[in-house]
Design goal:
Elements (H helix, E strand, L loop, with lengths): L1 H12 L1 H36 L5 H13 L15 H8 L5 H12 L3 H8 L2 H12 L19 E4 L4 E3 L18 E4 L5 E12 L4 E10 L15 E7 L5 E4 L2 H7 L3 H7 E2 L14 E4 L3 E4 L7 E3 L4 E10 L4 E6 L5 E5 L3 E3 L2
Antiparallel strand pairs: 1-4, 1-7, 2-3, 4-5, 5-6, 5-8, 9-12, 9-15, 10-11, 10-14, 12-13, 13-14
Helix pairs in contact: 2-5, 3-4, 3-5, 3-6, 4-7
Length: about 350
């Protein structure tokens, strides 16, 4: 007992020993924590790496890292020269950005978007965001960004190049013996066609392109246009608001550009003769007098029974009733109550 008491008194006489002991225990716990965490991280990383053969997203995460950290040494990342071309090439392939970000975090314990922002110039970073957000095959997260929705009406605000490909390169192509992709120069205020829904981003020139087109109707044409009856025209044009105006409805376009009312009388959608005006696959016909609504389910317009409304697109139950969406002969999108119409065919 006396020996035990003496030992306690000896410890109390030297309190620094208690602190040292506590510190050793604390450091030991921290080291153990770090070792366990590293083991878990390594296991997670190896699990993610094993998915590379089966997962496009894992491969894309690895490709991004390789482009930003070609040496493969993590602490050298800020010193390595980023392969911007490889970053853009990889960005074009991304369909599931959230999954790529998650794989990148599992593999490298870094935030992909922060790394991209740090490694790229402000303009290149914005281009990367545009590429990934506007990919038509994008899935998960927000829907793909549309430069122009299918069938929207496109008018040239000023003379703008109409091209065969979505490439705005302005180099002297003749020196390279490459044919220019410029088909013609539009007129200011010209109705240049209907958006097809196809789009592309020219990252080299930072230009967003949309495809537009139209077909010249086959009948009731002025003499000057009869030689072009039934001919189709398709172009790529910049979707920038600096060059074009995009409208959802004819009446909006006609109000701002009155001359387009005459043009739209003979410039019709590319599928005009394979759709509503020709062989209608699924015609929508009224079975009683009713009202047709605009695309926002507003502004009712009375129609009689047995009226051919247009071509069926879809049926929607709003919770307050079912409506049928259809495309009219002038390419407008409209709605009618499902009980008031029949879908033939």
């Amino acid at each position: 007992m006396e020996t035990e008491n003496s030992h306690k008194e000896n410890i109390l006489d030297h309190p620094k020993r208690i602190l040292v002991g506590g510190a050793v225990l604390g450091i030991g716990g921290f080291v153990i924590y770090k070792i366990v965490k590293k083991m878990i991280d390594e296991s997670k990383k190896k699990g993610t790496e094993r998915l590379a053969d089966d997962s496009a997203e894992v491969r894309q995460a690895m490709a991004f890292r390789s482009a930003m950290n070609p040496s493969g040494i993590s602490w050298m990342k800020s010193f390595d020269t980023t392969n911007v071309t490889a970053v853009f090439d990889t960005a074009k392939q991304v369909k599931k950005l959230d999954d790529v970000i998650a794989a990148y975090s599992d593999l490298y314990k870094d935030d992909l978007m922060i790394d991209l922002q740090n490694e790229l110039s402000a303009s290149d970073y914005q281009k990367i965001l545009t590429l990934m957000s506007s990919n038509p095959q994008k899935s998960g997260g927000a829907a793909p960004v549309k430069f122009a929705a299918k069938d929207q009406l496109v008018v040239a605000k000023k003379a703008v190049n109409l091209r065969s490909t979505p490439d705005a390169t302005n180099t002297l192509l003749s020196k390279l013996k490459v044919k220019s992709n410029i088909i013609r120069l539009s007129k200011a205020g010209e109705f240049i066609g209907y958006a097809t829904g196809k789009q592309a981003f020219d990252e080299n020139n930072n230009v967003k392109f949309i495809e537009v087109g139209y077909i010249i109707r086959k009948d009731n044409l002025p003499a000057s246009l009869k030689s072009q009856a039934g001919k189709k025209f398709v172009y790529w044009v910049s979707s920038s608001s600096e060059f074009v105006d995009i409208f959802p409805y004819f009446k909006n376009m006609w109000a701002q550009y009155p001359s387009t009312q005459n043009e739209s009388a003979y410039k019709k959608p590319l599928d005009f003769y394979g759709g509503v005006a020709g062989l209608i696959q699924k015609p929508v016909v009224t079975v009683r007098s009713t009202q047709v609504l605009d695309e926002g389910l507003k502004n009712p317009l009375p129609v009689r029974s047995a009226t051919l409304l247009g071509e069926y697109i879809l049926t929607l139950n709003t919770g307050k009733g079912s409506y049928v969406k259809f495309r009219t002969v002038d390419n407008s999108l409209r709605w009618v109550k499902a009980n008031d119409a029949a879908i033939r065919g």
